[in-house]
Amino acid sequence: MTSTRDRSLPMAVVAGLASGSAALWAAGRVWSTTTRPRPAPLPSEEITETGLAIAGWILPSALVLLAASIAIFAVGGSLRKIVAIAIAAAGAATVAGGVTGLVGTPGVWPAIVLLSGVGGVIVAAWTFLRGARWPRMSARYDRIERPVALSDDPSALWDALDRGVDPSAPTISQTAPGEEYAR
User: Fold this and answer.
1) What's the CA gap between 26 and 52, in Å, rounded?
2) Is residue 114 a part of any domain in this protein?
3) CA contacts within 13 A on the Cβ side of 143
4) Are residues 23 and 113 located together in one domain of the fold?
5) Which domain holds residue 38?
6) For residue 46, how many C-alpha atoms fall within 13 Å in the half-sphere facing its CB?
7) Lowest pLDDT segment from 19-28, 123-132, 140-149, 160-169
């Protein structure tokens, strides 16, 4: 059974989450180890540096990748394009962290960070180009202010409360029964 549903929205979100997670994971690994000799009788000292120590901006950029990837679901229209721009900026910063690591300490972890940043930039482009066609979260439970006309029936007040409308609110177009005598 084939489905005609567009699965590009969940795929973009998962790809963005994977890119951000991989960047966080790889940045926390040891990228370089240096042995520093010390005077005798002390043993030599081994100094390790993680990717976060070498390129500290990888952490915030990866967190932005994660958060903005989730935000793709929540927003729609032009706001989704703004989220795509944020993902592109975070992806570019992650790429810069990977390049910094590869230049200083070549290895697999900086390469993973670099590829994660490239993945973020691809998700950003995908979201920017296709995001306007994707569905957005439902506004089903958003409150819509509508003037409510009350009748002389007291049960109408209770019905208004059941609908979530405050019968004493100034948006009511008619006074409640007995209110005209209170003024």
Assistant:
1) 9
2) yes
3) 6
4) yes
5) 8-133
6) 4
7) 140-149
1 domain-assigned: no
Beta bridge partners of 48: 33
User: How many helices and strands (H and E) does the chain possess?
Assistant: 6, 2
Do 101 and 141 form a contact (C-beta atoms < 8 A)? no
Give the least confident one: 45-59, 80-94, 103-117, 159-173.
159-173
In a domain, 2, yes or no: no
Percent residues over pLDDT 90 in the chain: 48
Within a domain: 172: yes
User: How far apart are the C-alpha atoms of 96 and 110, rounded to whole Å?
Assistant: 10
pLDDT tens for 94-107 read 999 999 999 988 88
> Distances from the Cα of 91 to the Cαs of 21, 82, 111, 140, in angstroms?
12, 14, 14, 33
Residues 31 and 61 reside in one and the same domain: yes
What is the overall mean pLDDT for the chain?
A: 83
Whether residues 127 and 147 share a domain: the answer is: no
The one-letter code for the residue type at 155 is S
* Domain match, 150 and 61 both: no
Q: What is the C-alpha separation between 54 and 51, in angstroms, rounded? A: 5
Number of structural domains (the chain) is 2
